[in-house]
Write a structure and sequence with these properties.
heterodimer; A: mainly alpha; elongated; B: mainly alpha; 24 helices; 75% helix
């Protein structure tokens, strides 16, 4: 398996990236966790579309 | 080695290595519309016609639309929970992220035991669809009399897979260039097919069309149609898992994939469904020439066949890359053309069984969907419930013996046991080979309970094995993205 410790220049690249992620991107919106509200919306939309499908099937 | 080969090797090496490193904000490519468009164009792959057609075996038009809608939504939701959401947050591809769920050796087991088999199955079917397209066009335009599942299909399929290998062996740039033209072209062709179908069918005819081979119990037929489409939806996990890392916001990863795949799958699936119900064959080669005329029909089919070849190349690329990344030092030594060639040869072997592959398409999609549902259940339980969306990135990249994701020799036993239990539960609820079902299946499908059971078993088994013993990196992981 590829292991960074065996790839010297990649280890440097990895450390640079980790540094940048910690320094510049910590707290940035793109790294936000999915919130409970997001999750509930996701479940609600899924359930609603399934509901539409079930109604279609029952009506037919 | 020529200069060209050296360049490809270096591109692949860079991709295999850098491709597993975290992506920075400035390197992320896709906003909402870009990612949605990408997913629409991916979903209008030519197997979608076959999926719509297979749905028509069990249900009529309205129930078919409903089954595709429900199936794709459920499959898409399970797939999203098991991949793109996680990879979006950390900017790391799912096969690397999965080291925290399965262990590094566990990932290799899943790549060779599931990803490889599912990939070979899907790609050989695509190759066979090209073969069937050429044979049908030849029969209708030139007047040949080739059998639909005969040697001519196998030969055309082998040629198609060989061309796909030529593309994939030249690395990601060529595939990217081809897809720039193919994806929008497929959307245009699908719309053209809808127009041709609309001209030759009427709404009453469509509404009254009976399913081709339904079961006696209409509820069972409907449930099976849903489950089949769930399998097709979950199958995107292999590709979408790594795409999530290039999206710019969590909501882009969720809604772009969800909406794009649903819209694209429904559009192409409806073409297959309508064609199968009204014309008796979902495969565009069977009806495009008679309905669209020899010139338009042949041109459209030639494009579709070419699109299939690029689909094989695009879909095979991440699969082979995962195999190369997980295969240890002996696979690392193999050159990219050799390893892609070996993969394509595996798909070619299945081309010698066209009848079997096309007949068993439904079984394959449903079964692989069940396996992936179980896997996604385990991943989602690990990431959302046990780790609370916090993964220690540097630990993913350490050698097994120094990583907190060491588990048992690089294998998370709890994850693999739960995966197997989930698959067994799926087979208990619905065995797609024998078609045996339980009552729960007609109410809840098999994939939803499978995802839940696999996740629950994983949580329960992980406590005594790892969490209570302070192993597996479940305690003390720091969220590096928490605001300053």
């Amino acid at each position: 398996m590829t292991e960074l410790t065996e790839l010297g220049e990649l280890e440097d690249e990895f450390n640079e990236r980790m540094g940048e992620l910690r320094r510049d991107e910590a707290g940035a919106a793109l790294h936000n966790k999915v919130t409970v509200a997001d999750f509930m919306l996701f479940v609600a939309v899924t359930a609603a579309i399934c509901g539409v499908g079930i109604v279609m099937a029952v009506m037919s | 080695m020529t200069n060209g080969q050296t360049k490809v090797e270096s591109e692949i090496k860079r991709e295999a290595a850098f491709g597993s490193l975290p992506v920075l904000a400035k390197e992320r490519l896709w906003g909402g519309w870009d990612f949605t468009w990408l997913n629409i164009s991916l979903a209008i792959a030519t197997w979608a016609f076959l999926i719509g057609g297979a749905t028509a075996l069990m249900v009529g038009f309205v129930e078919g639309i409903a089954a595709m809608l429900i199936g794709n939504v459920i499959g898409g939701a399970i797939m999203l929970l098991g991949g793109p959401i996680m990879t979006q947050r950390f900017g790391v591809d799912h096969f690397t992220m999965l080291r925290s769920t399965l262990g590094k050796v566990g990932v290799a087991i899943v790549v060779f035991g599931i990803v490889f088999i599912v990939g070979v199955g899907w790609h050989s079917i695509l190759g066979l669809l090209v073969g069937r397209a050429y044979v049908q066009v030849s029969n209708q335009v030139v007047g040949t009399d080739f059998e639909l599942n005969g040697l001519a299909v196998t030969i055309a399929s082998l040629v198609a897979l060989f061309i796909a290998w030529l593309a994939v062996s030249r690395g990601p740039k060529l595939i990217g260039k081809l897809n720039t033209y193919i994806a929008p072209g497929l959307v245009v062709v699908t719309v053209l097919m809808i127009i041709v179908l609309a001209q030759h069918t009427s709404m009453p005819e469509l509404m009254n069309a009976s399913p081709i081979a339904p079961f006696e119990d209409p509820r069972l037929s409907f449930a099976m149609a849903i489950e089949f489409n769930v399998g097709a939806g979950i199958a995107w996990w292999q590709t979408l898992g790594s795409f999530g890392r290039l999206t710019k916001k969590p909501r882009v990863a969720i809604w772009g994939a969800y909406g794009g795949l649903l819209f694209g799958s429904m559009l192409a699936g409806t073409v297959g469904l309508v064609a199968a119900l009204v014309l008796g064959d979902p495969d565009p080669p069977a009806w495009m020439v008679p309905l669209g005329g020899p010139v338009v029909g042949a041109l459209v089919l030639a494009f579709v066949a070419f699109a299939n070849i690029t689909s094989v190349a695009s879909a095979a690329y991440p699969t082979v890359l995962a195999i190369k990344q997980s295969g240890g030092k002996w696979l690392e030594r193999l050159s990219w053309p050799v390893i892609t060639g070996a993969y394509v040869v595996c798909t070619m072997i299945l081309s010698f069984f066209p009848s079997f592959m096309v007949d068993q398409f439904q079984v394959f999609v449903t079964l692989s969907g069940g396996v992936l549902a179980s896997l996604c259940g385990v991943i989602a339980a690990d990431y959302f419930i046990l780790r609370k969306q916090v993964v220690d990135l540097p630990e993913l990249f350490k050698p097994i013996h120094r990583s907190s994701y060491k588990f048992h020799g690089g294998i998370n036993v709890a994850a693999l046991v739960s995966l197997v239990v989930g698959v067994m539960f799926f087979m208990y609820l619905y065995n797609p080979i024998t078609l045996e079902t339980r009552t729960l299946f007609t109410v809840l499908t098999a994939s939803i309970p499978t995802t839940i059971i696999a996740g629950l078993v994983f949580v329960v088994v992980s406590y005594p094995l790892y969490i209570a013993r302070g192993l597996g990196g479940y305690r003390g992981a720091v969220d590096m993205f928490q605001g300053k």
